[in-house]
Amino acid sequence: MTAPLDGVTVVDLSSGIAGGYCTRLLADGGAHVIKVEGPEGDPLRTWSASGAHVDAVAGGPLFSFLAGGKHSVVVDPAAADDLAFVDGLLAGADAVIWSPGSALTGLAALDPRQLHTRHPHLVVTAITPFGLGGPWSDRAATEFTLQAWSGGVLGIGRGEQHRAPAHVGGQVGDWVAGAYSAAFTLAARAGGGGQLVDLSMLEAQILGLTYYPVSYFEMLGRPWRTERKPTVPGVAQAADGLVALGCGTAQQWWDLCSMSGHQEWIDEATTLTITEQANLHADELFEWLRGESVDDVRDLASAFRIPNAPVGNGANVASMDHFQERGSFTRNPRDGFLQPTHPYRLHGVELRAPAAAPRLGEHTAIHRAASSQSPAGDVAPNPLPFAGLRVLDMTTFWAGPSCTHILAMLGAEVIHLESTPRPDGTRLIAGIPVSEPQWWEQSPIFSGLNTDKKSLTLDFQTEAGRELLNRLIPTCDVIVENFTPRVIDQLGLSFEHARQLRDDIVMVRMPGFGLDGPWRDNPAFAYIIEDAAGLSWLTGYPDRTPYEPYSVGDPNAGIHALTALLLALEHRRRTGEGVLVEAAMVDAALNIAAEQVIEYSAHGALLQRAGNRGPAAAPQNIYQARGIDEFGRDDTWVAVAVATDEQWVALREALGSPDWAMDTQLETAAGRRAHQDLLDEHLAAWCRTRSADEIVETLWPAGVPVAKVLQPHRQTEIPQLAHRGFFEEVEHPVNPTAPHSTMPVRLSTGPGRVHRMPAPLLGEHNREILRELGLTDSEIAELKADGVIGTEPAMGGRRKAAR
């Protein structure tokens, strides 16, 4: 058996986490990755988030994890022969992953647009902060300042109003950008022919850290959140440690009230949101939790089916019973530290086993001696690479629909399956009063996630519904579902059952915690996944419990599931075999939180949250600016991050070379890190007397990474996004025309417009799809009369039409 990408060659011209993780995912899929480095090597080789000393030639633990199984060749960017050698590698490759920031990729001959022109057969994926063109394309940025520009720092109301907003720790934006890059590289290959894939890390963060805030604001006339409040309960202090609890639905809030002995808090008639109700009773809830053990709280919550998890970090996550039973961690084959296993499982399909990372230049001689063989002749790429693919989308909320949404935007026929008793949960969370006509059609979140899809309602809890589902499945290439395993077991909709109906079906299952293990049937929302995997641990301030990111767990699961699906489709193309894909949300999260367990097992260093400081830059922080925000508050902020010595010189000169900044100890990263309190004191004072615009206009042209901490619904005011057409106006039969975000990439062959259809009305395509299955109009009418199909929610039970 061969891996899905066996025989595919990828040249890696990237540096850092995003490119490293992208090519790691491609290598795991079987691709032969040749990492091309300058004599100094990828800076990631010398990286350690804890500051531990590492071998620059062998590479430190994070490099060892990301570069496992790759080849390394060293070239001199000043040598013409070496550039000709690189050109030969590219001529024989199928794809190249490129990012700026090295002497090598700074050469005009290796600009990604030049590579695309010179080697039209290649998929060229460029990973840059803002995209290859546009007014911000050459501006300085770090993962931290991109979070600020994206709105992700304020996006979900994370934090507390009395202190600076807090970014999501762990350089999560770089990992998410890498995951998107891998998926879109495979998507471009699926279209055939060469393609330039222009990925914006800013746009990846918008999709990964904010929840369709522009569509929400434009459609409903109000922002999702107006102030920062900690999640309640969220991560809470129990008697013997931290425990995470969450309420994603009204029922879960009512159950939490009962579980804590406060049934009097239940008010089914209230107009308050779940969050607002929980905050009213936060003090009593936290007092109750402090008197209970973690195990008792989790046992109770599981019995009530309330999402819960232990709070993972680098020291404890690998020892948790669920991850041990599932084999979620393995030893690095070269260096022996613990690292996560693959972020998804393709049952019956080989993914590459962990392999040693290369020493700097280890394979140079081998590749210089080899002769490159160009891939097969050029094929005109399809601007809609998934045209002709039919997908049965049995998903709900955010994680599953975000996976199938990209398929729909790139041409697949995606049938979003709901039922009238149980419509997609995102239809129900917009805060639209049920007295409003067609209130269920007015959710900006549903609209943002489901353009270009069709809607079929089918109550497969009924015999007639199950019979129709069994007739529909053979017409589909792919099934994607994100129910808990328990629900699928009860329905009998297993992969084996689906395969009896269509032998080559690809079924993607996206449970929260996987198909086996002691947490298998636990309900899982994004924040619980973040808690368990360690993403919450690094977010917030050291003097209190962690803040939950409350965002990245879902879209991160969706983009990893898409990568797994594309690997499965490639396997089917080569073998004709169907594939079961297990894309557990928590496995994807463990991979983007990998650095914590790697640092702890390699160096004994437990990474800690540090507010807005971080290991990649010093100074790095969020500072208050002068000015009143749109809500009438003295609450305006900027993010500043100095990642290099050159940026430090630029900063102090932009400040006017004040005496405090001229201390020679501050000329090195180590010196600046040792004096962060001093730097924060002076920078905070300087920023407080200036507006956010003044600060950006002073520092950014000088080359200092800086950003306004943007309210997420103001993303349309970013000129770079306008230049790239990231938002498209979408008309809708019920809702006002509103801008909708698209994809974080621009493809050289298009499509020119991504949103071809608005999100569907509930059951809008019932007749069309059922007639394709051979049903007559009278049979369809009977199904509607019996409540098997419908176009209105039947909340509380199946609603039969009046006869």
Automatic annotation (TrEMBL):
SUPFAM superfamilies: CoA-transferase family III (CaiB/BaiF). Keywords: Transferase. It comes from the Bacteria. GO terms for molecular function: CoA-transferase activity. This is CoA transferase. The lineage of its organism: Bacteria, Bacillati, Actinomycetota, Actinomycetes, Mycobacteriales.
